[in-house]
Amino acid sequence: xxxxxxxxxxxxxxxxxxxxxxxGGITGGLEILITYPxxxxxxxLQLDEKGExxxxxxxxxxxxxxxKNKGFFGLYRGLSVLLLGSIPKSAAxxxxxxxxxxxxxxxxxxxxMTKRFFSGMLAGMTEAVxxxxxxxxxxxxxxSDQRSAKPKYKGLFHGIGQIFKSEGIGGIYxxxxxxxxxxxxxxxxxxxxxxxxxxxxxxxxxxKSVPKVLVGIFGAIAGAASVFGNNPIDVVKTxxxxxxxxxxxxxxxxxxxxxxxxxxMAFYKGTVPRLGRVCLDVAITFMIYDSIMDLFNxxxx
Length: 301
Hints:
Layout: H1 8-47, H2 59-70, H3 79-104, H4 113-147, H5 156-167, H6 176-202, H7 212-241, H8 251-261, H9 271-299
């Protein structure tokens, strides 16, 4: 009896997924080294509250005070967490997108707009569970710890050890529902917008390439669309992962308390620094990823 022959679609989706994982991992490491300071400032402003607890009066004030009190590399506090986490995060995102999008393609290799949206959403949900939630929780804890008068985390591994000791594995999965929703909507919007713009440029001609500069511009537009689309979710996620998360029962309770005590505009705290970071981040990410995949497609047949 002959062993079953894998279907071409299954084989192709697995190969594309593997290419996406490797290319995504390389992309993630390079991207975070470039963009981390904007992520740091965004998180600080989102953690800032009104009244006596308010510490910063905007982006410039946050940067100035951080550099003055902690030095230039204070803007890189928590980088090690994101650097270690960005590689598996990006690998999971692009690997999942290549896998799901290949599975969803029709007989002619076409990927409809709806399927493109859902491929991105599934990729975002995958990265949320695999890497983003634990990475983001640890990052927010580190940045939040720096805001206290007496920081208790001495370093990356000491901080992670303290979280595990006091809260167990669940301690690094705070805000999982909000993160899954955030990442799912993030990537659904980004992949949908990016590939729609690429299709618009090429006229859906798969043999026509898009210049890398244009890929970067399309990526920046896709990033901006995702920021305006889900910043409220990002604020709730950040609050749920902070050291003060115990004062909220869950993500819904957090959202209700924010709107009750701080007003609806509080959901757009950190929008400007996040916009700057995300547009740069997505532009760089897609340019690097596109270049690596072009190379892979030449040497990896």
